């Protein structure tokens, strides 16, 4: 989650890898893959999550949506909810 928060706060991939990678260990390549994975699935994930919290739909950009969501609930809970909705979440 720390990696995602860094990216959502506007850090570059390199800065995020330097800052968080030292602590958690994900490589730049892994961070890039996670970020692209979330962006590619945003429309589907946000559609399902808006049933749970319609207020998040006020976000203009997909990163704003995730900032709002993560400010209220941990990533693990959001992904567990999506998994319970039948979506594939690794």
Summary?
With 90 residues, this protein is mainly α. Helices cover 72% and strands 0% of the residues.
Task: Give a structural overview.
The longest helix is centred in the middle third of the chain and has 25 residues, at 28-52. The protein has helices at 2-8, 13-24, 28-52, 62-72, 75-84. The protein contains five helices and no strands. The relative contact order is 0.13. It has one domain. 72% of the residues lie in helices and 0% in strands. This is Transposase.
Keywords, please?
90 residues, mainly alpha, 72% helix
Radius of gyration: 13 Å
Number of individual domains: 1
Proportion of beta-strand residues: under 5%
Q: List SSEs in N-to-C order.
A: HHHHH
Output the number of helix runs. 5
